[in-house]
């Protein structure tokens, strides 16, 4: 790979996404892209005792589906790059524990999937891995408990409050003849826009979408 400028990597061999999958909850399935998700789980607990356990199970299912769709055997995957919104990547740790694949935890909040794709591409491009999995998850009810108020508290939602996705996504990245190529990656920088409303995460994150340096 080759570095361009301060923070862009050009992948000359172009690793590809060999398989991908998404597992979501009921609210997500009702959105404009609802028909494109691989699996919809209507029970927010997914048969588990806690929302956190449910989030882990979402990630387990997403990774399993992505591996199945990729045609790659589990034994051919060298690393998993995964993360979530819970303390110490708890959702990911419990979600992947039965795969028995080396795990490198990622924590980038809303950028975790992008970060995981970058790490997977770097490892496969460099030859450090033949195939790698990247995965992430979140759960509305678990995120509310961690960042705002537990739903049981009954707090009134502010007009600026965001809805955290209940779901998980996963990709298998490796060298192959077909698939979506990862050509380059630019790593973002921390910029403080002085947003002080903890409910209005949209205002804090929106500039990252629209500001692209020359």
Integer-rounded radius of gyration? 18 Å
* Total beta-strand segments: 10
Order of helices and strands: EEEHEHEHEHEHEEEH
Q: Report the mean per-residue pLDDT as an integer.
A: 91
Largest sheet: 7 strands, mixed
Q: Strand fraction band?
A: 15-25%
CA(first)-CA(last) distance: 21 Å
Ranges where pLDDT stays below 50 over 5 or more residues in a row are none
Residue share in helix: 25-40%
Number of helices: 6
Shape: globular
Kindly name the structural category.
alpha/beta
Question: Which helices and strands appear, and what pairs or packs with what?
Answer:
Layout: E1 2-4, E2 8-10, E3 16-25, H1 26-29, E4 39-41, H2 51-70, E5 79-83, H3 90-96, E6 103-105, H4 112-126, E7 131-138, H5 140-147, E8 167-174, E9 180-181, E10 184-186, H6 201-210
Parallel strand pairs: 3-4, 5-6, 5-7
Antiparallel strand pairs: 1-2, 2-10, 3-8, 3-9, 7-8
Helix pairs in contact: 2-3
Description of the molecule:
The protein is built from six helices and ten strands. The radius of gyration is 18 Å and the shape is globular. Helix 1 links the parallel strand 3 and strand 4. The chain is of the alpha/beta class.
Short description:
The protein has helices spanning 26-29, 51-70, 90-96, 112-126, 140-147, 201-210, and strands spanning 2-4, 8-10, 16-25, 39-41, 79-83, 103-105, 131-138, 167-174, 180-181, 184-186. With 214 residues, the chain is α/β, with parallel strands linked by helices.
Labels describing this entry:
seven-stranded mixed β-sheet; 214 residues; single chain
């Amino acid at each position: 790979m080759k570095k361009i400028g301060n923070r862009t990597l050009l992948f000359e061999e172009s690793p590809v996404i060999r398989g991908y999958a998404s597992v979501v909850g009921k609210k997500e399935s009702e959105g404009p892209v609802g028909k494109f998700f691989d699996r919809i789980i209507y029970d927010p607990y997914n048969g588990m005792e806690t929302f956190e356990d449910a989030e882990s199970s979402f990630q387990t299912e997403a990774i399993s589906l992505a591996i199945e769709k990729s045609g790659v055997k589990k034994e051919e995957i060298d690393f998993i790059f995964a993360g979530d919104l819970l303390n110490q990547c708890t959702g990911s740790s419990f979600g992947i524990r039965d795969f028995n694949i080396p795990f490198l935890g990622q924590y980038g909040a809303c950028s975790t999937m992008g970060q995981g794709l970058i790490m997977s591409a770097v490892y496969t491009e460099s030859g450090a891995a033949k195939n790698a999995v990247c995965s992430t998850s979140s759960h509305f009810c678990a995120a509310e408990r961690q960042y705002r108020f537990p739903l049981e508290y009954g707090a009134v939602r502010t007009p600026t409050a965001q809805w955290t996705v209940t779901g998980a996504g996963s990709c298998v990245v490796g060298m192959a003849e077909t698939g979506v190529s990862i050509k380059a990656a630019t790593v973002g920088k921390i910029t403080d826009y002085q947003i002080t409303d903890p409910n209005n995460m949209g205002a804090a994150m929106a500039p990252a979408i629209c500001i692209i340096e020359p």
